[in-house]
Design a protein that fits this description.
Largest sheet of chain A: 6 strands, antiparallel
Distance between the termini of chain A: 64 Å
Number of strands of chain A: 21
Strand content of chain A: 35-45%
Number of helices of chain A: 9
Oligomer: heterodimer
Largest interface: A-B, 84 and 77 residues
Order of helices and strands of chain A: HEEEHHEEEHEEHHEEEHEHEEEEEHEEEE
Low-confidence stretches of chain A: none
Shape of chain A: globular
Mean pLDDT of chain B: 96
Shape of chain B: globular
Radius of gyration of chain A: 24 Å
Number of domains of chain A: 2
Distance between the termini of chain B: 49 Å
Low-confidence stretches of chain B: none
Chain lengths: ~425, ~475
């Protein structure tokens, strides 16, 4: 089908085109406790074509895209592409050029065996030590080998194969008359048995603590420590505000060479895009538009150094070698975790759903489990919420010198925000 | 006109029927769900415009489900050659047996489940629609959305942009077993207007949407949404922070809807009962809300984005009363979970698309309305807030916690709106307390279907929810 589509695109009335062809071979296992709920296989191909039309005066350019089913006949594919060409002619954007052919450094096609990766996941999960007080309620294993080829009318023709795994785990902890559950979702390239085991056991520990919580006190403003994957949301705010789409659309006013905050009283963050992180599910040579991915500093000590993003908005900002990052690293701060844990603070380790709105900067999350350290003792608490705005909180943030990796993010293991609003129960 | 059933699915029908027959020789139960859903998505803003043929629910593919020895397995493919079903049958069997061999080698046993019933049924449904997505005049649509965005920008110099989107999807599904032959075709459409306003480096958004069962004729209603979206964005620039605490509140129909969805939508998805992951299991027949709480769930409850004739397991659509006068009556259930629990399925077995597993999922989740006027509700409040607009929600079926991010609150003091606006608001609480405090409800009821719903953080499906204005108490932060 790919050859047919390319031949149709080459003869179509279009200014430019892109094609992405992704083959997925996936194995999935759904478990209730350790019994099989269902096993599944996916063998699919998704071929997406995007065509560009330039207006007669060259002042505007439009694009339209669609998926062409692998079962489509040549005639069906031609109808779809002709329709795309017409639809693209209706859209009026500022013209830009597509990615040019440029080879990424390094990279190799390692064989990926979904069966072997599945075996590791199943073996690891079945080996998790359980007690009458803590056990695995259920889990879902997703293992995929993906082969992606991307071509465009500028001569880009790249292909890569990569693994993409995820496991969703629900654990229970119980005391007489009381049972709680914790949900975890781990993404990775392949199965990292040691990390998975550690993280599931840590979830069980969290569950044990949650059984003993009291209501969160109404603290008003408090220092809040983020020491879980939720902290990635805070750093996603910085990454998103350096996205060329946000800059071009004036949703972010951050300028290169200038501090992203009027003043940093705490640790000014340094953020980079990196091409590879160990076993990240996002390790790629090329982005979705065929641009080579490379290591690139985005933020250095709070100063915006580089924007990143899709071809369209990057081109509008005059950036010729930008790309869509897939992995990020945030450098650690000066002080260690223990130094950041000295004054009274609330450490939230379990939210219902922690979010940072990248447009408004607002952050919020309901507390399912936190530890309130009042300077003398530590109490496990639950209920209430945290809220605030990164526009106000960024200037006093503190980052631990130790770092930790969550799939495609490496970030400080502890992030401290001062003056967060904590709505308690009592 | 009727939305015509897919030519592609009609073409592969006999091949798919043969695939069922071939696999039935090896397996005790076989079903095939074949899908062919097309559509469009147009997005217009001042700075970027696009048109795509993909929406959240466009797809073409086929999923085969089989059962042997109490173990259910599925294979999803999108290269089915109807002229050679033998090839697909061999592929399905080979893949499943490879997985079974791995499971056997590890000593993994099945959660033994009886064979699904397969009572004979034939159904062919084509629902009404004025303009199909494939026949929509795209030139006129793009021009009208562009004009709408342009018009919004004339309303205030503080507007950064106005993003307008319109989507329409023509769903076609074919479900086959040895004894069932079901086909359906329907169209749903949705549109949104998002206004962005900025002042002194702070940006706020206003959001308005519409949705319904029908074609792109519904999208003409977007014009009415624009001004409200713009005024909300501008109002939010002046919004203050709320003093955290427990307040009397009035929820707008949109906020009522998200509470319905999060509180006792997810809480009674009965696949969670199988895993002992929902407290609702132990509360059937017990009080979970005030007498004023009656809640419906089902594809037949409303005509919106998920009002199908049968679900993805071939169970006919239903209308379930989950809560009646405050008493939890029942949950909703997919077919496999129903077999495991010994209850009847309710027509709530849904897949994200043919590549995904079936879970128990919501369709239309709606509070019943009452007789109290909004004016009387406001007049009854000493100090509280009228809550409008929804950013997101999150459930906790095991512990009945709820979190809703609300766009804004309008302050009410001594029975009157003061004009003061607070934002954003995080509403949290214990579901029975929240529903138990409902003391008034308005006659009007609205349904909203522009959003999606995940299970955990994946498996995104279309849902709608809604209700009337409700007066209750909640903790706001």
């Amino acid at each position: 089908m790919l050859d047919t589509v390319i031949s149709l695109l080459r003869s179509a009335d279009v200014y430019a085109w892109e094609v992405s062809d992704v083959f997925t071979e996936a194995w999935e296992f759904y478990m209730i406790r350790h019994a099989l709920d269902q096993n599944r296989v996916r063998h699919v191909e998704h071929l997406t074509a995007k065509v560009f039309r330039l207006s007669e005066d060259g002042e505007t350019m439009g694009f339209a895209s669609c998926e062409i089913p692998p079962t489509a006949s040549r005639e069906e594919a031609k109808v779809l592409i002709d329709s795309l060409s017409y639809r693209a002619s209706l859209i009026k954007n500022k013209p830009y050029t597509l990615c040019k052919s440029k080879k990424a450094d390094g990279g190799s096609h390692l064989p990926i065996d979904p069966e072997e990766i599945s075996r590791m996941f199943l073996t690891t999960m079945r080996g998790i030590p359980e007690t009458p007080g803590e056990d695995v309620n259920s889990y879902e294993i997703f293992v995929a080998s993906k082969k992606r080829r991307f071509l465009n009318s500028e001569g880009v023709d790249v292909e890569e194969i990569y693994p993409d795994s995820m496991i969703e785990v629900v654990v229970n902890a119980r005391a007489p008359g009381h049972e709680i559950e914790l949900y975890r979702n781990f993404k990775s390239g392949t199965c990292d048995a040691e990390s998975l085991r550690r993280d599931v056991l840590r979830a069980m520990q969290t569950g044990r603590d949650r059984l003993k919580t009291v209501d969160t006190p109404a603290l008003g403003k408090a220092d809040v420590i983020f020491s879980t994957v939720d902290a990635c949301e805070i750093y996603s705010y910085f990454a998103a505000r350096l996205d060329t789409a946000m800059i071009y659309r004036k949703m972010s006013t951050w300028e290169l060479g200038k501090s992203v905050c009027p003043v940093f009283y705490g640790d000014a963050p340094s953020l980079s895009a990196v091409r590879e992180l160990p076993n990240s599910s996002a390790n790629r040579l090329y982005d979705a538009e065929g641009a080579p991915i490379r290591d690139l500093p985005l933020l250095e000590n709070g100063i915006a150094r580089n924007y990143h993003g899709s071809r369209m908005f990057s081109a509008y900002l005059g950036l010729e070698d930008s790309f869509i990052p897939s992995n990020y690293v945030v450098e650690g701060g000066i002080r260690g975790e223990s130094e950041l844990r000295q004054d009274p603070y609330l450490e939230v380790v379990e939210f219902s759903d922690f979010q940072v709105d990248v447009v408004t900067g607002d952050l919020f999350g309901e507390i399912r489990l936190a530890y309130w350290h009042d300077g003398e003792k530590t109490v496990a608490v639950s209920g209430g919420s945290v809220s605030g705005s990164m526009l106000d909180l960024a200037e006093n943030m503190a980052l631990s010198s130790e770092t930790v990796q969550y799939n495609n993010w490496r970030i400080p293991s502890v992030t401290l925000l001062k003056g967060v609003t904590v709505t308690g129960i009592v | 006109m009727k939305a015509p059933f897919s030519v592609y699915l009609s073409g592969i029908r006999s091949g798919a029927e043969e695939l069922v027959r071939l696999l039935r020789k090896k397996y005790e139960y076989v079903s095939v769900l074949a899908t062919d859903s097309c559509g469009f998505a147009v997005r217009i803003s001042q700075r970027a415009r696009s048109v795509s043929s993909e929406t959240m629910t466009t797809e073409r593919g086929l999923v085969v489900r089989v059962c042997r020895d109490g173990q259910y397995s599925e294979v999803s493919i999108n290269h089915f050659d109807a002229s050679c079903p033998e090839h697909a049958a061999a592929e399905v069997e080979a893949e499943i047996e490879k997985q079974r061999a791995l499971l056997s080698s590890l000593g993994v046993g099945a959660y033994h489940t009886p064979v699904l019933p397969d009572d004979p049924l034939t159904l062919f449904v084509e629902k009404d629609c004025e303009v199909l997505p494939e026949e929509t005049d795209m030139k006129t649509l793009v021009e009208s959305l562009t004009a709408l965005s342009d018009r919004a920008m004339t309303l205030s110099s503080e507007l950064l942009d106005c993003m307008v989107s319109a989507q329409s999807t023509h769903i076609c599904k074919l479900f086959l077993t040895e004894n069932r032959n079901l086909a359906q075709s329907y169209v749903y459409s949705e549109g949104t207007v998002i206004a962005l306003a900025s002042r002194d480096g702070r940006t706020q958004t206003g959001y308005e949407g519409l949705s319904g069962l029908g074609g792109s004729e519904l999208l003409t209603g977007l014009g009415e949404k624009m001004e409200k979206s713009v005024s909300t964005a501008l109002e939010l620039l002046d919004a203050e922070h709320i003093e955290p605490g427990e307040y009397e509140i009035i929820t707008s129909p949109e906020v009522s809807g998200v509470i319905a969805h999060e509180a006792f939508g997810h809480g009674v998805e009965m696949d969670m009962f199988v895993k002992n992951r929902a407290m609702g299991k132990d509360y059937i027949g017990k009080r979970v809300g005030s007498d004023l709480v009656t809640m419906h769930e089902g594809a037949l409850c409303a005509e919106d984005v998920t009002s199908y004739a049968f679900d993805d397991e071939g169970t006919l659509a239903g209308d379930v009363i989950e809560i009646e006068n405050g008493i939890l009556k029942t949950g909703i259930c997919d077919a496999l979970s129903a077999m495991r629990l010994g209850v009847a399925p309710t027509g709530n077995g849904k897949r994200e698309n043919f590549e995904h597993k079936v879970y128990t999922r919501m369709t239309n989740t709606i509070f019943d309305s009452g007789t109290d006027s909004l004016e009387d509700m406001i007049a009854s409040i000493h100090h509280g807030y009228l809550l409008e607009g929804v950013e997101s929600g999150m459930e906790d079926p095991k512990h009945w916690g709820i979190q809703c991010i609300i766009k804004l609150g309008r302050e009410i003091v001594d029975g009157r709106l003061t004009g003061r606006v607070v934002a954003p608001i995080i509403l949290t609480g214990y579901v029975p307390d929240l529903l138990g405090s409902i003391s008034m409800r308005s006659p009007e009821r609205k349904v909203f279907g522009t959003g999606g719903c995940g299970k955990g953080y994946k498996e995104w499906v279309k849902v709608s929810d809604g209700g009337p204005y409700l007066k209750t108490k909640a903790r706001l932060g």
